[in-house]
């Protein structure tokens, strides 16, 4: 099932951080679309919940040295 999900990302301080987080998200199997905003520290992904979970997505962000947390 395709889901749209928003979460917060801590630790991003420049546009290159944004690019690297977006790249990490887009490389995840099951993620169709990823947009990250520096000003609001929000990320939004469209993903297939039969392939990847929210926890997997958060873990990938944390593995890259950022902090991911649930908004909803
Ligand atoms: Mo620029 Mo963002 O060195 O960590 S990539 S601050």
TrEMBL record:
It is found in: Membrane. It comes from the Eukaryota. Residues 3-69 form the HMA domain. This is HMA domain-containing protein. It comes from Acer yangbiense. The lineage of its organism: Eukaryota, Viridiplantae, Streptophyta, Embryophyta, Tracheophyta.
